[in-house]
Amino acid sequence: MTEPAITPDLIAAHGLKPEEYERILGIIGREPSFTELGIFSAMWNEHCSYKSSKKWLRTLPTEGPQVICGPGENAGVVAIGPDADGHELAVVFKMESHNHPSYIEPYQGASTGMGGILRDVFTMGARPVAAMNALSFGRPDHPKTRQLVHGVVEGIGGYANAFGVPTLGGEVRFHASYDGNCLVNAFAAGIARADSIFYSAASGVGRPVVYLGAKTGRDGVGGATMASAEFDDTIEDKRPTVQVGDPFTEKRLMEATLELMATGAVVSIQDMGAAGLTCSAVEMGDKGKLGIRLDLDAVPVRETAMTAYEMMLSESQERMLMVLDPAKEAEARAVFEKWDLDFAVVGETIAEDRFVVVHGGEVRADLPLSTLASSAPEYDRPWEETPPPAILAPIPAADPIDALRSLIGSPNYCARDWVVQQYDTQVMGDSVALPGLDGGVIRIHGTNRGLAFTADVTPRYVAANPVEGGKQAVAEAYRNLVAKGARPLATTDNLNFGNPEKPAIMGQFVGALDGIGQACRALDMPIVSGNVSLYNETDGSGIDPTPTIGAVGLIEDLDRRIAWDVSQGLIALLLGE
Amino acid sequence: MKAAILVFPGSNCDRDLAVAFRGAGFDVTMVWHKETTLPDGIDVVGVPGGFSYGDYLRCGAIAARSPIAGALADHAVRGGYVFGPCNGFQILCETGMLPGALLRNAGLKYICRTVALRVEETESAFTAAYKQGQVIDIPIAHHDGNYTADPETLRRLEGEGRVAFRYVVTPNGAADGIAGILSENRRVLGMMPHPERACDAMQGGTDGAALFKGLAQALVAA
Amino acid sequence: MKVRVEVMLKDGVLDPQGEAVRHALGTMGFAGVESVRQGKLIEMDVAEGTTDAEVKAMCERLLANTVIESYRIEM
Amino acid sequence: MKVRVEVMLKDGVLDPQGEAVRHALGTMGFAGVESVRQGKLIEMDVAEGTTDAEVKAMCERLLANTVIESYRIEM
Ligand SMILES: Nc1ncnc2c1ncn2[C@@H]1O[C@H](COP(=O)(O)OP(=O)(O)O)[C@@H](O)[C@H]1O
What we know:
The complex is a heterotetramer, with one copy of chain A, one copy of chain B and two copies of chain C.
Chain A: H1 8-13, H2 18-28, H3 34-44, H4 46-49, H5 54-57, E1 67-69, E2 76-82, E3 88-97, H6 99-104, H7 106-123, E4 127-137, H8 145-163, E5 167-174, E6 183-193, E7 208-213, H9 223-226, H10 235-238, H11 247-262, E8 266-271, H12 276-287, E9 291-295, H13 308-313, E10 319-324, H14 329-338, E11 342-350, E12 354-359, E13 362-368, H15 369-374, H16 400-408, H17 417-420, E14 431-433, E15 440-443, E16 450-456, H18 459-464, H19 466-482, E17 487-496, H20 503-522, E18 527-533, E19 537-538, E20 541-542, E21 546-555
Parallel strand pairs in A: 4-5, 9-12, 17-18
Antiparallel strand pairs in A: 1-2, 2-3, 3-6, 4-6, 7-10, 7-11, 8-10, 9-11, 12-13, 14-15, 15-16, 16-21, 17-21, 19-20
Helix pairs in contact in A: 7-8, 7-11, 8-11, 11-14, 19-20
Chain B: E1 2-7, H1 14-23, E2 27-32, E3 44-46, H2 61-64, H3 69-77, E4 81-85, H4 87-95, E5 101-103, E6 111-119, E7 135-142, E8 146-148, H5 151-159, E9 163-167, E10 178-182, E11 188-191, H6 209-221
Chain C: E1 2-9, H1 16-27, E2 33-46, H2 52-63, E3 69-74
Adenosine-5'-diphosphate (ADP) binds near residues 416 and 437 of chain A.
InterPro entries (chain B): Class_I_gatase-like (IPR029062), PRibForGlyAmidine_synth_PurQ (IPR010075)
Pathway (chain B): Purine metabolism; IMP biosynthesis via de novo pathway; 5-amino-1-(5-phospho-D-ribosyl)imidazole from N(2)-formyl-N(1)-(5-phospho-D-ribosyl)glycinamide: step 1/2
GO cellular component, one term (chain B): cytoplasm
């Protein structure tokens, strides 16, 4: 099959700027093939490369005695003490956005967002035990809001409930700035033995690279590129084939993966997220300082006549890539067959620093692997400090009861039961505090210790003063955990902002990170994982800056948790300044 | 006392159910859906809640045709006990071991919350530890709990005292507020609520524990 | 060989989904929708020579729950 | 007046349900079922004189999710 010629239009359609294309030419010393262009665009888009945010993310505190693994892997890992048999345990958690896909197809977008974050957690060897979701929608009376709210909430529930993880918290907000860009941030946490965490770095030459899970289709081809582009009237045309979530397959993939890990067969493992096969293979090779050779003819596909380009960029869900101990291949295959999942050897690790992709007997890509991984441009985008907010007009006097009524009757402050009741909050049998007040709590199975979870941010504070707003989000998360009787452990962040190419937006980003960093340092809540979602703009108008903070705390003795058993005759105290 | 819990590929309340059975003193064996026999000496089979096959096609439909289904039916025919909460209830209806079917909730939404149930019938091992008419708090978590059966079947269920639990306020449109029903020999119980989620105080309530204890007592007495 | 199976709830069985669709259409301003029933359409690609009886068995044993549903086969 | 609307997932869109049904039929011993796609069948009773265009609008706005589904109307 012949591939299209590389033209300036094709380059632009891949979200690559002319100077970025020049850089590609410099790296490989020749014109890239179509497949190679696709690979570069996937690796270099904002979503995978963090090219606008990296510089600032480095300033965040990520270490502490409790941290086993900070940012850089699929999820962060934090020590939480022993289980009933004395084995040290760890909590593995992360939060990730699926904003653009949810706006296009709310049910499937939210559902696959939930699926992706769960996969991040079990890829590291942890069984997911808790989920949260932080949602921002436009005005309740905006014509699109209703459909988005319904679809997103049902999609989150449809996936998490079927997968079997309790949803223990989250946020729902409505504000005009999200009219054209809803936000769907999904959090998941799992528990693993601290001595059996799995990482993505490959090791050993000549080892099989194995494809696990569901078959590859044309889903989302072009999706990773889309996450780096603003929406406008042509959105209909940009629509890639929508990814459909399959929680039933994901649940089996989780069980099979955990079972496989227990056999000792797994050398390294990586989930296939955005630009699945490309990013996962390159990352495994790069971290292990190895090359990878992929033979696409062996990739399980569900559609006919798929090209190398499509396979390399497909975002089909519920898939993983793994480097296997060759001595255990038969055992590993048996586990996957037990769960009726695909298991295919699709390549091997090689000594040369190359990423070689073969399809139909032809080499479709042959790129320097480590350079491909590390060469993504990094920008120090111009930014300007956010001007002080306008002085608010004095608040008119109101009868306190009326004011309270309008607050609790308002979309942003009314009870969240209508959302929470659509989520299974109790599956796994260890939910101790359900969503409703502050954060949720689960019992660490078989112990009398618990984990508390919360997700918080107040975008209008961040808009008014990014530094203070960033601090406030962390402080609120901290308070929510403490209010459950938990000792805050660590944080994950989901940084949702507008177009970083605008200095004002970049200024919000820089300011919020400064505030978040300061607060996390002061409160000893290092950031162990996170996700950045930029370009949340429609027709040039961006969302309020929304850096969602997810945090996890440890309760040493659940009998002494703060349980909200309020009864008559107790004394109310107001603490703080 | 031995319990077997069936594990379908998408089951997600299988472990929770095992914890509840163990809490009442049972030895628990997990049985994979591709098996065709149950281990020897099983007193009760638990058909767990969750999404046995992702709730694809119809809830419980594919599980009811899985290889283990034959052994489950044989166990019931021999007079063995079977307990199916939530998806377990849907599976038991799909196998025909219990009459009727479960449709999408009347409000179409998935509902997860704790509801009040009235114990309608104490003449069964599962309900013997409750008092007739007792109101208990048990969580529900389902999308398809809207029980339906033809009028004749409903009359029979009522007439034979086989409605084990009824919702105090029906959340899902179920016919006559039916939350759980017994088989003719009263040894198979299917119910939409999850008593295994109400067995220890940390879970927020313990009203479900009596169901497992009652069953254990019946087995000890036998 | 293509086979189509239509599965509908039997008359008299309440159809919560159909009812919700009817209600929603009314709310959206479509007047005169008197009743809506929602069923399933299953399209299969089966081996050449698969018989009517085999497809019927698939329906009876899996595709339809004959307690509440009826089905119709088109081959 | 009776109207039938068939809603199917577009080609290329993953159909997890259809796949699970295909697999189950195989396990139950029905050989040769190569693919299964599961869609919706909506039967409506609408007012006499309802136009094609009106039914089309119902499909576009509610009955089908045109991002991933296609529909066919029979009046
Ligand atoms: N999308 C959601 N999913 C799950 N729980 C939610 C969601 N939105 C809000 N909640 C829960 O509802 C409760 C009230 O929400 P909110 O007012 O934002 O919380 P807080 O108590 O932190 O101020 C909290 O327990 C929160 O975790």
